[in-house]
Design brief:
CATH class of the largest domain: Alpha Beta
Oligomer: single chain
CATH architecture of the largest domain: 3-Layer(aba) Sandwich
Number of helices: 8
Radius of gyration: 18 Å
Order of helices and strands: EHEHEHEHEHEHHHE
Shape: globular
Strand order of the largest sheet: 3-2-1-4-5-6-7
Number of strands: 7
Length: 257
């Protein structure tokens, strides 16, 4: 399908899932706004590369999504937002009684609260345009839990709840809201963890991936950023016009267990 004439804002999109989603949306013809908290030449070069390769308009806007005013300003600076992809996220692992308060606050702010702030500014734009898609990148951990990830799991469960509320508030409008729930996705960050994990467990790459990293993912295969992007493009299509307020798990069967 063609998304020509639509503008997509993707938070946390200078690498990994966010960049993968932005790339697939650009391939489908959408103009894209990339974002992260940095403001480097290479960030802007990513946008320039997408624009040149896919014949779309692409910009990079710096915003620290731990801050409410910057989350809202991101959408305001974009000027229009037909497709909002809330993807920005961070992680920290620790037992609840040892979990640093500043880490809790940052994870809740970036992973969950920023999605509220961006959605609040984007919805009036979508209503004015007469069409819109809100797609929140949640997680398998938005539907289930693991120990030592209290803030991340609380935030991702919150994102799923926010998605449902957004869908109900827009149910009679040509606007949908859904959450994509990835399992383990092969991003540069995950790829970088493999060598250290091989050393830690004294295992081969294949065994580390299958028996350690993908222990809870029944397919024993990583999902890809292209699959995340393809799912987002589908949710923007006319075929998905009556899909709203739900989650789509791209997790190799994780949440089927």
């Amino acid at each position: 399908m063609s998304l020509k004439g639509k503008t997509a804002v993707i938070t946390g999109s200078n690498s990994g899932i966010g960049l993968g989603v932005a790339t697939e949306l650009a391939k489908a013809g959408a103009d894209v706004v990339l974002n992260s908290y940095t403001d480097r030449d290479e960030d802007h070069a990513l946008a320039e590369g997408l624009a040149k390769e896919h014949g779309v308009t692409a910009r990079y806007i710096q915003a620290d999504l731990s801050k409410a005013d910057q989350s809202r300003a991101l959408i305001e600076q974009a000027g229009t937002c037909d497709i909002l992809i809330n993807n920005a996220g961070i992680q920290h692992v620790a037992p609840i009684d040892q979990f640093p308060v500043d880490k809790w606050d940052a994870i809740i702010a970036i992973n969950m609260s920023s999605a509220f702030h961006t959605t609040a500014i984007a919805l009036p734009m979508m209503r004015k345009a007469g069409w819109g898609r809100v797609i929140n990148i949640a997680s398998a951990h938005g539907l289930t839990a693991s120990p030592y990830k209290s803030a991340y799991i609380a935030a991702k469960h919150g994102v799923v709840g926010l998605t449902k509320t957004t869908a109900l508030e827009t149910a009679e409008e040509p606007i949908t809201a859904n959450a994509i729930c990835p399992g383990y996705v092969l991003t540069p960050l995950v790829e970088a963890q493999i060598p250290d994990t091989m050393k830690e467990y004294d295992m081969s790459r294949e065994d580390v991936i299958k028996n350690v990293m993908l222990k809870r993912q029944p397919s024993k295969e990583f999902a890809t950023v292209e699959q995340m992007g393809g799912t987002a493009v589908f949710l923007c299509s006319d075929a998905a016009a009556q899909i709203t307020g739900t989650t789509i798990s791209v997790d190799g069967g994780w949440t089927a267990l």
